[in-house]
Amino acid sequence: MLTLQIAVALYAAAFIAMIAALASANRGVSRAARLLLALGFAAHTIGLIARWAQTGHPPFLNRFESVVFCAWATVLMAMAFEALYRSQLLSLLAIAFVEILLPYAVWGIDSELTHPMPALRERFWLWIHIVSYFIGYAAVVVGTAAAVADIIMRARATQQASFGALSYDRIAHRVVAFAFPFLTVGLVTGAVWAQKAWGQYWSWDPKETWSLITWLLYLVYLHTPLALPRIITAPERRARLVPVLMSIWLVACFGAMLVTYLGLRLLQGAANSLHIYAQ
Question: Taking the domains of the chain in order of start, what are their residue ranges?
Answer without folding.
Answer: 59-270
